[in-house]
Design brief:
The protein is mostly helical. Helix content is 18%, strand content 5%. It has two helices and two strands. It has a two-stranded antiparallel ribbon. It is globular and about 40 Å long. One of its GO terms (biological process) is proteolysis.
Amino acid sequence: VGGAQKLSLGDGCGYVGTIVHELGHALGLHHEHQRSDRDTYLNVYLDNVKSGQGHNFDKTDPSQELIYTNYDYSSIMHYGCYAFSKQPGVLKTMEAKNGTLLQDPYNKPGLTNNDITMVRKLYKC
C-alpha cells in the first residue's frame, strides 16, 4: 500500500488477459470467484481441485469486502471452470449457476465495465 508494486510474469504468462489480471492484483482487485457471496452464483467442486490448491477457492472474509459490484462472471479477475482441476478439460472445479461459460483470464480481452468500476471505487476517481 502506497509503495511500488513489482509485477513478475513467468513463462506462459504473456497473454494480454493474464497480464491485465496480474495488474489487477497490483491495483488491489481480488478474485471474483472468492467473493464471500460467490455461492449464490457458483457451484464449486472442491473434490475436483488438485491437492494443495484448495486455497485458490477460499472465500474472502465479508468484513474485508468493502466495495461491491454486481457479480461478474466475465471479470478479468475470475478464473475459468477448470482452474486447478485434477483433470483439466474433464473435471470442472466451478460452474456458473446461470450457465455462463467461465473462461480463464488469458482468454479474456481485458477489463469489464465492473472491473473498471471497482478500480474507480478503490481510487475514488
